[in-house]
Write a structure and sequence with these properties.
By secondary structure, this protein is of the alpha+beta class. The chain contains eight helices and ten strands. A four-stranded mixed beta sheet has the order 6-5-4-7. The protein has a three-stranded mixed beta sheet with strand order 1-3-2, with no helix packed on it. A three-stranded antiparallel beta sheet has the order 8-10-9, covered by helices on one side. The N terminus is likely disordered. Pfam families: wnt (PF00110).
């Protein structure tokens, strides 16, 4: 798998260089392409950070579920942000979610780092025309550049999808859904101006919602995912006994294969199973963990543990914070036969 990961990253590098049309002579390179060439290592690092961030959010969203976004294969972390098809061989709703939240996280991370001036040449996003009339506010500040994040995510991730098969169409569609959720999370933020805070005028800009908001919305889409088929090189959904084309405007996650039984260990689909699954009461309530074990026809064993945490913290002038150590009890529940 390590060889596969290394080879895959090498192919990625070649594809991106080819797609951007890098040349050896400055005379044939546009200023934009030169800027992209200089930023390539930086952008690739941000893309990888986004991939790991997406997986972490997936695990947070599903920590109380039988499928808790555990991929089984540790080498998959080396492949992030790309999920190689041999690692996720089936196009289930879980695979759909992983593709969507990865694309969303990479888009979000690129935009966030652009806002923080960590990407040379990255500019503010464009806003709509100023509303007519005396609205009491105007566009200003620096709006998040959603188009930049979307464009770079497509360049690094979508361009790798070659061919015209069902899995490629599945991956590209769910990647796009992830980006759409990020775009939909943009909200108007404003700052007041005026004498003594009277707020006679507000300056407003567009800003992304925190990524956990995106994660929660994608989880709702996971619940409402639609099963599709692949006909005439296109994805189709069944609607009123008719096959209808799934277009780019379709905002739902789609899947091709039924989900396996995640209660059972299955290395092929990356399922570790529920036997031996542990839950800490300070992360997942003990009652919920016991319920998860029972739902897979397993018993459970709960053992109490103790840990020390900082408590009763006080600010001491100047300039330190001193805390006591308190002993806290927590439970560790394990699913057993």
């Amino acid at each position: 798998m390590e060889l596969l990961s290394t080879t895959f990253l090498a192919i990625l590098f070649i594809l991106v260089r080819t797609q951007q049309g890098f040349t050896k002579t400055k005379s044939r390179s546009s200023p934009d392409s030169i800027l992209r060439q200089k930023n390539y290592p930086l952008l690739w690092r941000i893309v990888r950070e986004g991939g790991h961030r997406g997986l972490a959010e997936c695990q947070q969203q599903f920590k109380n579920e039988i499928w808790n976004c555990s991929l089984g294969d540790k080498n998959v972390h080396k492949q992030l942000p790309i999920f190689v098809k041999t690692t996720l061989p089936f196009a289930t709703r879980e695979t759909a979610f992983l593709h969507a939240i990865s694309a969303a996280a990479i888009t979000h991370e690129l935009i966030l780092q652009c806002r923080q001036n960590r990407i040379p040449g990255c500019k503010c996003g464009k806003t709509r025309k100023q509303p007519t009339g005396n609205s009491g506010w105007q566009w200003g500040g620096c709006s998040d550049d959603i188009k930049f994040g979307e464009k770079e995510t497509r360049r690094f991730i979508d361009k790798l999808e070659k061919g015209n098969d069902a899995r490629t169409a599945f991956n590209l569609h769910n990647n796009e859904v992830g980006r759409k959720v990020v775009r939909a999370s943009l909200t108007k933020e404003c700052k007041c101006h005026g004498v003594t805070g009277s707020c006679n005028l507000k300056t407003c800009w567009k800003q992304l919602a925190p990524f956990n908001v995106v994660g929660s919305e994608l989880k709702q889409k996971y619940r409402a995912a639609v099963r599709v088929s692949f006909l005439n090189n296109k994805l189709h959904k069944r609607d009123n006994n008719r096959d209808r084309l799934v277009t780019r405007k379709h905002k739902k996650l789609v899947y091709l294969d039924s989900s396996p039984d995640y209660c059972v260990r299955n290395a092929t689909v990356g399922s570790p199973g529920m036997l031996g699954r542990t839950c800490r009461s300070d992360v997942v309530p003990t009652k919920e963990c016991k319920s998860l074990c029972n739902s897979c026809q397993l018993r459970h064993k709960t053992v109490e543990h103790y840990k020390q945490v900082k408590c009763r913290c006080k600010f001491v002038w100047c300039c330190t914070v001193k805390c006591d150590l308190c002993t806290v009890k927590y439970s560790l529940t394990t699913c057993t036969k």
